[in-house]
Request: fold
Amino acid sequence: MLYRLLRPLLFKLPPETAHCVSFNAIENARKLGLLPNRPMACQPRRIMGLDFPNPIGLAAGLDKNGEHLDTLAALGFGFIEVGTITPLPQPGNPQPRIFRIPQANAIINRLGFNNQGVDKLIANIQCSDYRGILGINIGKNFSTPIDKATDDYLICLGKVYNYASYITINISSPNTKDLRQLQNTEELDHLLCALKSAQEKLTELHGQYKPLAIKIAPDLEPSQIDAIAVLLMKHKMDCVIATNTTLSRAGVEELPHSLEAGGLSGAPLTQQATRVIRQLHATLQGAIPIIGVGGIMSAADAMEKMSAGASLVQIYTGMIYHGPDLVQEIAQAVCTDQ
Ligand SMILES: Cc1cc2nc3c(=O)[nH]c(=O)nc-3n(C[C@H](O)[C@H](O)[C@H](O)COP(=O)(O)O)c2cc1C
Reply:
């Protein structure tokens, strides 16, 4: 309600400024005790061996450096994913690099993994009081050649292993050159082999198994989705997150900013992401859980993702357009439907 009043003001600011202003406002609301301050409790769901208090998560990218965990937790998320984080800090692409398309409830971004590096992320996590389920999304540095990408994932995996509830391998951002090539069968087979072997060693070292999720793009051909599903089963991956932003401009053609380079998210992505989830579900047959993300702008969108086969969902752009109340709204609908 309050967000509906504030949104026109926030949307007058450049997106990255609005992001800071919003976090400050939410942080103040939390300190004043105006937020629910805990996840709405559904029938807990056990996915990847973890107990999720509710199935609504924050998608990667909103809190890249894990700076706002306590504030985000107060919004009622059942889990939070931070990152994408890379081994070394990097500035990302020059600004402006986020564009709102309000006529379509959409965003185009080409941030390019701007982040403060994995060590800073860990320091931030250590400072926070958050004890809920934490996904850490990892990627490769801009300067690392694509044929050395595995090294970057392994560096991040080793460093975050102790701090994450699960770790997401991001091979689907459209804003890091050639990253999506890692979804090709040969490259993915090699990457998953290296990751699973590292996971085995880390499990022994730390005495704890941490699940690995792979985040994929919505722009894959049906045959590619099937090939990925087969590899995920071959390597006994723990989860698949579908999907990242799209390179398609369907639904925003002719609108201002539609020709900006980057990944499109929000309402135009809803059906495209759901189609990927549906196909994955059909191929995986429940062997590997799916986290559904992409254009969830309402409780009905979240329910549709779950009907298509998602065990959990994540939101990002929906929060930008509808505010933090969307978390409770979705949680309420999903929990009552159980
Ligand atoms: C501004 C912005 C930054 C994002 N950064 C990341 C990121 O760092 N890593 C990642 O895996 N996904 C990132 N995403 C993708 C989201 O996590 C999500 O997969 C995508 O936006 C689709 O969901 P939505 O329509 O609810 O936003 C980003 C999305 C946006 C809008």
